[in-house]
Design brief:
The protein is α+β, with helices and mostly antiparallel strands and about 210 residues long. The chain has helices spanning about 15-25, 65-85, 125-150, 155-165, 170-185, 200, and strands at about 5-10, 35-40, 45-50, 55-60, 100-105, 110-115.
Length: about 210
């Protein structure tokens, strides 16, 4: 049986452009999805998103094997957020919340994080509100990873949390800073290196 998550939207709350991009799966940031029009019990036209979750586990049920794997989840999410901006899916367009995050493990690769799409809502329209929601969301994700962490090294997640909470960084700069925290955790013997050829491992060539 196909594993899936169903989310309903008021028709005006999701744009046709968003649905088209999300259904292509181009960015990798969002779970595979197809949309269909339905009519709610109140007679109002709605859009139903059917997100496929096979191979993924909810962030609430994800148990990082070590602190580096936990940080890999955050880096994966930030990397895909940047890719989404290339097709005009901006951070302020969608909600970032631990309940919407799913993680996939594949042999020999770093974990891959994906979101279920939920529009940000009318109260998130300003840039300041969008960035506050972004930083709060990343901090909440780090909190959950810290709570589920197996083994030592939680202090590195606390450090990543402080960076996300306190410096107002955009996704690109935040990804670079958190990758440096991951490097330090590995060099101090808390974990294994990122698999060769992974996007996280390639980040070691980032400037600065």
């Amino acid at each position: 049986m196909e594993e899936r998550l169903e989310i309903q939207y008021i028709k005006e709350d999701i744009k046709n452009y968003h649905m088209q991009i999300l259904e292509t799966g181009f960015t990798g940031l969002f779970l595979p999805v197809r949309f269909m029009g339905i009519r709610g019990e109140d007679g109002e036209e709605r859009v139903c998103g059917l997100f496929r979750t096979e191979g993924y586990v909810s962030l609430r049920d994800f148990r990082p094997l070590d602190v580096c794997e936990a940080l890999d989840v955050v880096i994966s999410l930030l990397d895909r957020m940047l890719r989404a901006e290339d097709v005009f899916l901006f951070i302020g367009d969608y909600l970032i919340h631990p309940d919407l995050v799913f993680v996939r493990r594949r042999a020999g690769r770093t974990p891959e994080a994906a979101l279920a799409w939920t529009g940000a809502g009318l109260d998130r329209k300003s840039y300041i509100c969008a960035m506050n929601q972004f930083h709060d969301g990343i901090c909440s994700i780090i909190d959950m990873l810290a709570g589920n962490l197996q083994g030592d090294g939680e202090g590195y997640l606390r450090h990543a949390w402080e960076i996300a909470a306190g410096e107002g960084l955009h996704a690109g700069a935040l990804k670079m800073r958190i990758f440096r925290v991951r490097e330090e955790a590995f060099l101090c013997g808390y974990s294994r290196p990122a698999p060769s050829g992974s996007r996280v491992a390639d980040s070691s060539r980032m400037p600065g």
